[in-house]
Design goal:
Blueprint: E1 2-5, E2 8-11, E3 13-16, E4 22-27, E5 34-38, E6 43-47, E7 60-65, E8 79-84, E9 91-98, E10 107-111, E11 114-118, E12 121-127, E13 131-135, E14 140-144, E15 158-162, E16 167-174, E17 181-189
């Protein structure tokens, strides 16, 4: 899905600053018969919204999102979007995470051919098995989510890793004061990403 949220744009994965309100514009690859909006707190399912409704032209969604405080405003609470087309079986998805006051350790992320400087929260989507890299300006310790692994580099700053075939969250902590944190979410896939037809 192509995303535009509060003026920030991306294709599939986006990390943006926290806000009290988000204006979302979403363009799906296929026609939308079903649209899902999920956070750590809510799941909303829209089916058969039709022309001029939520779906607009059946490929475009516009909506507002006001996070429920504190459930959706404190800590990690990303948004997962899903678009499903009944006739051709095409599906598209997106992942949105938000910068966080508790995660402020900057990093350079090399993900799927792109290099991004991040401010404490990052996300990477790529085919599983491909090599990605995250580099910090200081030594860190990593705490991977259960079932996910991250090789420990000798310098404790530059982590090269093979993309896992699922969603993984890695929490990095700066060694020594001021103990800043960084949250990296990886989204690995095995299939072909949907293409416009």
């Amino acid at each position: 899905m192509k995303l535009k949220i509060n003026g920030f744009r991306a294709d599939g994965v986006l990390v943006i600053p926290k806000s009290a309100r988000y204006e979302l514009e979403i363009d799906a690859k296929g026609k939308l018969d079903l649209f899902t909006f999920e956070t750590c707190h809510r799941e909303e399912i829209s089916e058969n919204a039709g022309e001029g409704g939520l779906f607009g032209n059946r490929k475009h969604v516009e909506r507002s999102f006001i996070p429920n405080s504190p459930l959706e405003t404190e800590g990690a609470c990303p948004v997962r979007l899903g678009g499903y087309e009944r006739d051709k079986g095409r599906h598209s998805w997106a992942f949105v995470d938000f910068e966080d006051l508790t995660a402020t350790l900057p990093a350079e992320l090399k993900c799927n051919g792109n290099t991004t400087n991040t401010r404490g929260v990052s996300a990477c989507q790529s085919r599983s098995g491909l090599i990605q890299q995250i580099t910090f300006p200081v030594k860190t310790i990593v705490n991977p989510e259960t079932g996910c692994s991250m090789p420990r580099p000798s310098d404790l700053m530059t982590y090269r890793f093979n993309m896992s075939p699922k969603e993984c969250v890695y929490n990095f902590m700066e060694q020594g004061a001021p103990n800043r944190e960084h949250r990296l979410t990886t989204l690995g896939y095995d299939g072909i990403l949907i293409r416009e037809q």
